[in-house]
Write a structure and sequence with these properties.
12 helices; binds 3-hydroxy-3-methylglutaryl-coenzyme A; about 300 residues; 10 strands; two-stranded antiparallel sheet; binds magnesium ion; eight-stranded parallel β-barrel; alpha/beta
Length: about 300
Amino acid sequence: QNNGFIKIVEVGPRDGLQNESKIVSFETKLELINLLTNCGLPVIEAASFVSPKWVPQMADSSNIIKSLNQSHPTKYTSLVPNQRGLEMAHKAGAKEIAIFGAASETFSRKNINCSIDESFEKFEMVVKQAKDFGMSVRGYVSCVVACPYEGKISSDVVADISARMFDLGCYEISLGDTIGVATPEESRNLIRKVSTHIPVENLAVHFHDTYGQAIANIYASIQEGIRTVDSSVAGLGGCPYAVGASGNVATEDVVYLAHGLGFLTGVNLEKLVRTGSWISEELGRPYGSKAGQAVLAK
Ligand code: HMG
Ligand code: MG
């Protein structure tokens, strides 16, 4: 036991579900969040206050946030792209939001319909007002290794965008490998570069698992000092504006890795596996966690 703690940010109810074409019922979403809470996850991204025309699956975000106990030790967070989303999140009782930008100009336009510079103008106002509301703000940078439209992205650009976002007042910057193409050496170099601008304790990693490298990337990231990891129960998910990208790394696999390295996570793996296999069944998908399958087979 090394007594260190790895904070897992469970993004399944948001990143995991946003790309499901069939609308998942409000009751199923709420049940998922409550089960995940019961697993001991410290942070759950529960909703997304984006345009329902862009992402219909997240249209019931206000009701989801209203239905959660915001004074629970588990923190519930939501994506917010603009002032409109912030006001809705605030009205619903949200205590934390996440803004999301990109290191790729084309992805920014496809995902949030504006350039990177325009996005920062919006973020500045959103962060300022969120702080006035007493909310904390997390920041995402997408396409930290590659973009589905532009290809390879320079880590200098990623470091610059991340620093701009951190300087706005985000307490944590999550580095998103949106299309899941990173390899461990690239992940390591990226974290070294970005952490020359932002303390490593304020960084998180967010790997999609398209090429099956996510768990190896997380291991490399932990070796570089990363202690916050985003993941999705059962490996659900994908981004609607990054065609072909698969789900996030499965939370079950991250928990197994972290515990195996002697870290604490506060997460009960057995309960998490029951939750992961249940939601996979609800969605009619094969259960996408290797660690989860192994636990079930025992
Ligand atoms: P827009 O069309 O440029 O915005 O979209 P607009 O201000 O012109 O508004 C258009 C319509 O949307 C209006 O309605 C607005 O009221 C409404 P209308 O007058 O036509 O009836 N609207 C809203 N409704 C509800 N909530 C709002 C909101 N804002 C406007 N907040 C916008 C701009 C940003 C809204 C749009 O592009 C959008 O919603 N994009 C979100 C895309 C998205 O959710 N992508 C997935 C999440 S990011 C991700 O997955 C990556 C991540 O996981 C990290 C990684 O893996 O890299 C985080
Ligand atoms: Mg993502």
